[in-house]
Each structure stands twice: as structure tokens, then as C-alpha cells.
Amino acid sequence: MRKALGMLLIIAFVLPTLLIACSGEKTEADWVDELRDKRTRDNALMYVQQHKTKQAVPALLRLVEKKYGTLKAIYALGIIGDETAVPKLIEELKLVAKKDSMDHDRMTEQLCMSLGMIGATASVDALIWAVDNGGEMGRAGAIQALGMIGDPRATQKLIEVVKNEKEKITIRHYAAIALGKLKADEAADTLVYALLVDDGTGLNLFRDGQLSLIQIGGKAAREALIKGYKLENADAMALVEKYIKETKPGAPKFKVDWLQIKAINVLGEMRDAGNAPFLMGEFDKGVKDDLVYELFAKVMQSLERTPLGKEDLAKVAKIFLQKPRSTAYLNEREILSRVFIFNNYQDQLNDFMKIAAKGDLTLKNAMGKNQAFSQWCVAAANVVSILGDDKLADEFDAFSKSGKCDAAIWGLKTPVKEILNNFNERMQASKHCKADMACWVKALQSDKWQWREKALYVLGNSSNQAYMDDIIKVMNYPKEEVRAGVLYAVSRLMRTEDMPTLIRFWQDQKINKEFQKITESLGYVLFIKMRELKLDSPNARKELFEKAQKMKSTKTAKKTVAPTAKG
Predict the structure, then answer these.
(1) What CATH number did the domain enclosing 300 receive?
(2) What pLDDT does residue 356 have?
(3) Model pTM greater than 0.90?
(4) DSSP β-bridge partners for residue 363
């Protein structure tokens, strides 16, 4: 009897529960209902954020109004991105922005960030108001939000913030970045000024200004940079005078050349063929010794990254192939070798091979004595081994083993013999693969890093974007030369579908010291490609970054805290 009664109880009470559990997951309406109960609210908030549940917007707005879990509710509204939330968020913003407390400032920041994530232009006026009326965090949030929305009405306010010397540099940092997102041509002169802004602690706006100028790009950025280079930017020159006046006795004086160097650097990072005429004009001045050498070196480095026509490349090659006048001109050959590599200049490879085969160059050293120098033959060998094919492989092999190019280079840890052996491995890869592209794809997985490096340049010069699938797989390779090859190939072959993967890599690795050099350049290439492919509108950019955020992390270092709303 007891057993029978027990079975009845199981059927009466347990079975219905099991049937309900098995009948399906909670509906969106169930999750929305759970927002009302503080015991289930956190899980419900996670669900509606993850699924961008628009049905939850009224319930979330009630939470904001009643001050229940307000910050999390505001953040969820931003993630969901429904414009119906905008009026209420603006109302709340006007209530809390002027209140002087850390909690209210944090609330202001989150309200602004959520308005930015929603992206409604209806919130622009309120956000501009918040820039003038919020606390430090709130104002930072308002400025970032204006950048997210990308409405040109914010331009003048952001320019004012960047130029306000009484403003904290962190706030000016967000404003400089936002101006790039707005692609505001009229802000280009201000961003050239920003290249020099430094608060004296080492915090500066150089990288912010540089990236934003690259995002603006084209004629507006070019003209502003050339104006700065010619020392015709009044705000920048006033800042130079201020720095010179404030220099303490005995400390190095601020040089006006630094503004010119920074301007030239950005012109190079733009990777714009339209910048070539100006850069080549300055190159001609440098050849004639009409430029300070430090500035001339930066002009040559900028030519490394600037697409040049055959006529300009032939002019640079003519200078390279002439015997250097003195040891002071040896470094030029190393820099110029990379100009030919970037531009895939193969027209005079036999001439470069002849220079390499001549071996060390004898010049007068600083003591006036004859000395052998290998910089010229090494630079020529670098060009041949990156761009040369199997036809030059045997000649290069004989040269690398001849010992003719062998003089030690002062300050260089790697012996010249080892450098040439690495170059020769590139050429042996050419001899092995010849024109077989399948072989070059396979070389990307070789146990010889030099083969991987060479394969990246060959594939990058192929114009076949399908190779990107294989190229992306070697982004994390622990050798700087290979990572430089990846950047080269990516800058030529990147497709729209590759961008989220590359953005994720850029975000994860840009504070990793080992990858810092390559990821900074990758960031510039990404934003240039976004502009070229018309993917730099606020909505397109938001979609790309959201896709990147969902992808698997590329971090190889310790785990870090998950990104916040600012991320």
C-alpha cells in the first residue's frame, strides 16, 4: 500500500515538474519577467544583453526609472541598441550629469556610452551638453559616444577639447580619437597640432592624432600635414614656442624639426600614392644635403610605405646604386632597400645583385683610415633575396658563401655571415618552389622561418586574395621578420571577411610588447582599408568590431579582465 501511495505521489508531483522542464527553455517573455525580481535579475540581464532582446526595453527602462540595478540596465539598453530608449536615457542624463559625486559621474559615463552604442543622432545635442556639464568620467563617456555616432555636429566641440590646454590629457585623448571616427576634414589642422601635445609626464597625443589623420586621409590630411611640415600651422607653432620657453636650463631644447618629423611620419603611414610627389620632392632635397639628416631619414622611411610609380622608383634606385660618398650615407642604403621591397620593384634586380656581389665597400672611417663596410652589399642582398626568383638562386648562393661581404657592422648583434645565410635560405626557397604557388602555400608551414618569410612576400605580390586564409594562420609566429611579412601580405590582400579576425588580433596583441611594433602598423592598415572599402561608417565599424569581439581570443599571455563598455 505504501509503495502504491509513493508511486501516486511521484506521478502527482514529480512528473508534472519533469514534463515542464522537458517542455522547452524559457521564452523571451519569461526572461523579461525575471528582470522584475532582484533574485533573478542578473541572469536575466545577461540573457537580454546576449540576445539583444528588444522586448526587454520597457522593463529595463522601468528599472532605470526606479533606480533598480540602474547601471546594468543602462548598459543592457546600449547593447540592445533600440532607439526607443533614447528619450528616457537623455532625460536621466540631464538629471545626473551635473551632480557632484563619483556615483553620479559613473552613471553619466554609462548613460553616454549607451547612447553612443545605440547610435541615434537624436542624442548628439545632449551628448555635446554633457561634454560641458559632466564630471571627468561622464565627459569622457560623452566624447567617446560622439565618436561612435559620427555626427558632424560634434566636430567643433571636439576640436575645442583637443585645443584646450587646461583640459586633462585623457579627455583630449578621447576627443582626438573621436575626430578620426568622424572623418572630419576640418579637424585635420587640429590633429596635426595634436601630434605635439604632451603633458610633460610622457603622456602625449601623437598616436591618437596620427591614427585620426589616417582615418580622415586623402587631400585634407595631406594638406594639413604639409602645412605643419612647412611650419605654417599657427597652433602647432605656438605650442613649439611654449615648449622652448618652458625648457629648463641644461635640458635639451625642443627642436622645431620634431614637428616636421612627426608630419612626415604620418604622411608615410597613410600609404597613399597621392603623398608621393611631396615626399619625392623632399627626398631630392635630402640627396642634395638640403635637409637635416634626421629629417631626411624620416622622408626615406616614409617612402618605404608609400606606393611609388616606376619613374620615382628608378630615381631612388639610381641613388641607391651609386657608391656612397662617405660612411654617413651607408644607412641610406639600408633604408632605401625597403622602399624597393615595399613596392615590389624588380626592374633592376640584376644591378642589385652586382652591387651585392662586389662585397664590402672601403671608405674612410671617423679616424680617417680606410675601413671595410658591408652595409651596402647587405642592403642590396636584402632586396634580391626578398624579390628575386629561382633564376638568381645559384648566383646568390655563390655570393653568400664567397666571404666578400663580411665586415662587421658596428652595433649589430647578428654577424653579417648569419644575415647572408638567412637571405640565402630565402633564395633556396625560390629555387625549390619556383612559380608553384601551391608550394609557396606549403612553405608557410616550413620549419625554416626564412621560407615562411619569403612565401609571405611571394603570396602578397600574387594579387590572389584567396591566400589570405593561409596567411592569417601564421600571424602569431614568434619571429619579427615573419610578422613583418604577414603585414606586407595583409596590406595587399585583405578582404572584408578577414577584418574581424585581424581586428581581434590587433585588439588582443597591441599591448603585448613582442607584437607592439607589428600591431601598431596593422591598426593603420585596417583603418586605411576600412576607408577604401567604405566600411568606416559608424554602423559598419560597429558591426566589424562586434564580430571581432565574438571571435576566439588571440592572446598568448596571461588572462586579462574582460572589456567593459569602453572596450
Answers:
(1) 1.25.10
(2) 97
(3) no
(4) 371
